[in-house]
Amino acid sequence: MDRFAALRVFRRVIELNGFAAAARDLDLSNAAVSKIIKELEADLGVQLIQRTTRSLRLTDTGHDYFNQITRILDELEEADDAVRSSVSEPRGVLRISAPLSLGLVLLSQIFARFAARYPELELDVEFGDQPVDLIEGRFDLAVRGGLLQDSSLKARKLMDIERVVCASPGYLASFGTPERPEDLSKHRCLIYSLSASPRNWMLEKEGTVTRVAIEGGFRANNSLAVRDAAIEGLGIALVPKIYAVDALESGRLIRVLPEWGGELHALYGVYPQHREASLKVRFLLDFLVEAIEKALA
């Protein structure tokens, strides 16, 4: 048995959550994938995967083994990248986690252009707003906003995210326009539930920061949903300007307290500290920085 080949098959079975999906991805038959996993388990003398007719899941031993061999295979791939780096373009699989809203508005187009430029590279992108575990998880790179809390991660800044307070003309006509930050507490505000403090807005003006307690009857875990609720007149929103710029330009939204804005949040490309950025991660980070700068110009 080719151990490294077997490990790669095992890894793809778990990453794709199925034998059939792994077989298609690796251009193997279902029977070949099943045989490789059985031989690997027999050679190790343990069961790695619990199989049912509808699903599979890792045993405790299989979970530990998967994490260990993932790191080994990543390091092997990085060693290959280092050898190829002076004469080659990136290749292999690049697994990325990115925010859903920013993906829809900006990143999906950039990832598509990156994939077109480097056809030897396979991009596996997962969009979602929940944080992912880069150390134990399967991702090579995550796009994240805010401060970097985990010292086991490295980060490269991609952009600053400006946030604006806004509402629809209809809402402001019905309920009035706030003139001071504290007036927001008397209004219907739209709540982004994944914020560190959803019912408190930190607003900034020329270096002065004020905290405003807000209330409202609409709550969502997605910034585009919050923006759309504002467009529909449900209340006042604090959203990234990049999500609201079209609605502001068309008049569907109006800036509220235009001299105030949400605190700037930086967006980073983040990868594990325990290894240097691989060739494919470095290429993507360079591409992201350039493409985002052009998109926001």
From TrEMBL:
Would you tell me the protein name for this molecule?
A: Transcriptional regulator
* Signal peptide (UniProt feature, chain positions): none
**GO molecular function list:** DNA-binding transcription factor activity; sequence-specific DNA binding
Q: What keyword terms does UniProt attach to this protein? A: DNA-binding, Transcription, Transcription regulation
Q: Which Gene3D superfamilies match?
A: 3.40.190.290, Winged helix-like DNA-binding domain superfamily/Winged helix DNA-binding domain
Task: Return the SUPFAM superfamilies for the record.
Answer: Periplasmic binding protein-like II (SSF53850), Winged helix' DNA-binding domain (SSF46785)
**InterPro entries hit by this protein:** LysR-type_TF_proteobact-type (IPR058163), LysR_HTH_N (IPR000847), LysR_subst-bd (IPR005119), WH-like_DNA-bd_sf (IPR036388), WH_DNA-bd_sf (IPR036390)
Q: Which family does it belong to?
A: Belongs to the LysR transcriptional regulatory family.
- A single GO BP annotation from the record? DNA-templated transcription
Superkingdom assignment: Bacteria
Which CDD domains does the UniProt record give?
A: PBP2_CrgA_like
PANTHER family in the cross-refs: HTH-TYPE TRANSCRIPTIONAL ACTIVATOR TTDR-RELATED, HTH-TYPE TRANSCRIPTIONAL REGULATOR
